[in-house]
Design brief:
The chain has helices at residues 2-11, 17-30, 32-44, 48-61, 71-93, 101-105. By secondary structure, the protein is an all-alpha fold.
Length: 106
């Protein structure tokens, strides 16, 4: 479920990020090790010149996020997620022959 939601946010036209961000934070907090593996898979699937930018996108996603589902924390995560999505899409625009999101998440 975590990889599916993240895949939708990163690689598809996600019109309602707010409704996706709420369960995503809970899934990340419940599955931190799996999220770390997904993050590494996505980063390593990028060309070497894009890997540091993608790593920074993921770092920014979790910046100032606490291990709680308090409203303030969830709101901050939603803001971070919006920036994350924009930055990931900007980074991927420069790639030719981008691997599909599903392939990156496997």
């Amino acid at each position: 479920m975590l990889s599916t939601v993240l895949n939708i946010i990163m690689f598809e036209d996600c019109r309602n990020q707010w409704s996706m961000s709420r369960p995503l934070l809970g899934l990340i907090l419940l599955n931190e090790e799996y999220f770390s593996q997904l993050r590494q898979n996505v980063i390593s699937s990028q060309p070497s010149e894009k890997q540091s930018a993608m790593a920074q996108c993921f770092a920014n996603l979790m910046d100032a996020i606490e291990r709680s589902l308090l409203t303030k924390n969830r709101d901050r995560f939603t803001q971070n997620l919006s920036t994350f999505r924009r930055d990931v899409n900007d980074s991927l625009k420069g790639l030719t022959g981008v691997v599909s999101g599903t392939d990156m998440m496997s």
